[in-house]
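Journal club side-thread
Mid-discussion, someone asked how the predicted structure for our own chain would compare to the paper's figures. Pasting it here so we can look after the session.
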Amino acid sequence: MTGTAGGLRIVRLANFVTARSGGLRTALRHLGEGYRAAGHDPVLVIPGPRATDERHPWGRVVTLPGPELPGSGGYRLLAGRRRLARVLAELAPDRLEVSDRSSLRWTGSWAKAHGVPSVMVSHESLTGLLGQWGVPDALRRPTADRLNRATSRAYDRIVCTTRWAAEEFDRIGADNVNLVPLGVDLDTFRPDRADPRLRERYADPTELLLVHCARLSPEKRPELAVRALAELRRAGVPAVLVMAGDGPLRTALARRAAGLPVTFTGFLPDRAAVAALLASADVVLAPGPVETFGLAGLEALACGTPVVVNAASALPEVVGTAGLAAYGSGASVAAAVTRLAARPEAERRRAARARAEEFGWPAAVAGFVRVHGAESGRGTPGQGDHRTT
């Protein structure tokens, strides 16, 4: 055994993680902290501009130099199979957990060859992503099914965070899927973070404050937030919009928002500042169509703020009656905002917080630990049948 005394070394591989990436980075940190608290030794391997090896409260983080994806706003990839295989051999994992089922799928074969139980975490809908990438409708589902079959065969277990995400594995008959909802930091994100002075910075008492808090990249569809604001203003609704986050679409969005009351904050590194903004808003917009969990939306609910989500994503399942779903148009999002804002404020804020309290990180960590078969020592990977954990 290579992990801590009585524990397991859980080596985790992830692409598309930067110092400014959102939900995935947050999930990796909370899971790492949870693994350590459970007596395990988490090691996270990610790409970056240079090689580093650091210790953090969420475990050891090994950064390998990786190429930057053009137009991605800073995302990098773990490239070079031989190098990564050498690193894996040196780390000697007891468990392998992978958060990229495209370029890292080969690591499932490495794990099998070395007798290491493996888990792939599905963080997105592949069918949805293919649509975002312009794959024709007729090819989208068969392509996703072929790739998902390969993923299911390559890894001992697949973890999906919502039933919506698990559906594309259900339709190919995969029998190694576990459903484990992620969590939200209910201490950092809470209603009493609301700050009247912060709200006054962006909106006067007669205005409706909307917030979009996500990476400004194509898969998040941030332009829908700007379009919704334009629709609301045309309808005479005195709404204003704060776009919190950064990404490759920021310049184009600023041009689109010209003449509208839109504020771009850039990336907010302070989680308490993010919580204050979310808690001070009237409605938060999460229009991304391929989200499989949507931590930013859940963080808004934890702050007592209802959310408008994309009906094509997994977020309707997550937000429940504490939010509304809209299809992918500015008019649809605007109509949902109007309906949410018409609810009594105290009622909609209570409902939002109550929904968020159904998701905690301790339960999420416990679910992942069970999937790894790591409740007590080595064990074997957990058997899953889409039961919530």
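Post-session note: The radius of gyration is 21 Å.
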